[in-house]
């Protein structure tokens, strides 16, 4: 029997004009599900991976399974998928992983993108001193591996990407805290429970599921989406004293 995920990928693939479907995953079940996902039409996968040694990985995820995640990444790459690794940039965690991640991207050719730690953690432990900035990460790779050279920005990607100066290995930084890029953000999300989110730091801004289950017209769904886009704020406001943590942590928004 096909899983709900495979079915979703297959149905999305049938939509004319949809150019890219990408799965963001913790990678634990990737290897097991890969063959069916490929058949369903998935070609892009982003794997969240915060550490490359078992102990740090356990500390970051509160479970083991690093070997399964690495096995999934390897299998996806061998199946011809475009694979990227996303990693949180956190002081006390990432600074001990620089050499390992540098060797990883240079060995596999898989780009690793570091996302500054944002106040979207489920424990509410975020504080500014735990944020390892994108600039610090670039400096660490350059001093501990080889100098990094910027790559020209591609489309609306929030990542600033670099390649090592010998052309082998790619590192990206998403400096969402130290250098916010909200003025050029075109992200808009539909959560797994059918809620619109016009910003990671916003609140739910429309209940599409309720409209669909209530037999609403396409027109009213379209109006809800347009109004959610129109109320997108100019910035996330984490540096504002009135900032309120969003009610949903990152894992409940969908990356
Ligand atoms: S507008 Fe919201 S989702 Fe977009 S970059 Fe800023 S914080 Fe992130």
From TrEMBL:
Recorded superkingdom: Bacteria
Cofactor: [4Fe-4S] cluster
Record keywords: GTP-binding, Iron, Iron-sulfur, Metal-binding, Molybdenum cofactor biosynthesis, Nucleotide-binding, S-adenosyl-L-methionine
Presence of keyword Ribonucleoprotein: no
Listed Pfam families: Mob_synth_C, Radical_SAM
GO aspect biological process, one term: Mo-molybdopterin cofactor biosynthetic process
UniProt GO molecular function: 4 iron, 4 sulfur cluster binding; cyclic pyranopterin monophosphate synthase activity; GTP 3',8'-cyclase activity; GTP binding; metal ion binding
Residue ranges occupied by any Radical SAM core domain in the UniProt entry: 1-148
Protein name: Cyclic pyranopterin phosphate synthase
């Amino acid at each position: 029997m096909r899983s709900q995920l495979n079915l979703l990928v297959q149905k999305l693939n049938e939509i004319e004009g949809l150019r890219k479907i990408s799965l963001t995953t913790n990678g634990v079940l990737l290897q097991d599900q890969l063959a069916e996902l490929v058949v369903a039409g998935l070609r892009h996968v982003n794997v969240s991976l915060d550490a490359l040694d078992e102990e740090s990985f356990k500390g970051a995820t509160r479970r083991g399974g690093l070997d399964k995640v690495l096995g999934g990444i390897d299998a996806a790459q061998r199946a011809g998928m475009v694979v990227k690794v996303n990693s949180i940039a956190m002081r006390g965690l990432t600074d001990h992983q620089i050499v390992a991640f540098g060797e990883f991207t240079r060995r596999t050719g898989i780009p690793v993108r570091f996302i500054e730690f944002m106040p979207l953690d489920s424990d509410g432990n975020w504080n500014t001193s735990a944020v390892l900035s994108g600039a610090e990460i670039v400096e660490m790779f350059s001093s501990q591996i080889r100098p990094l050279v910027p790559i020209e920005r591609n489309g609306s990607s929030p990542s600033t990407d670099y390649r090592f100066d010998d052309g082998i290995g790619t590192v990206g930084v998403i400096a969402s805290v130290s250098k916010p890029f909200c003025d050029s953000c075109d992200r808009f999300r539909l959560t797994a429970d059918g809620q619109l989110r016009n910003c990671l730091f916003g609140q739910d801004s429309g209940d599409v599921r309720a409209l669909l289950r209530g037999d609403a017209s396409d027109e009213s769904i379209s109006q809800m989406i347009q109004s959610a886009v129109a109320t997108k704020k100019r910035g996330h406001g984490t540096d504002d004293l009135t900032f309120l943590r969003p009610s949903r942590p990152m894992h409940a928004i969908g990356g």
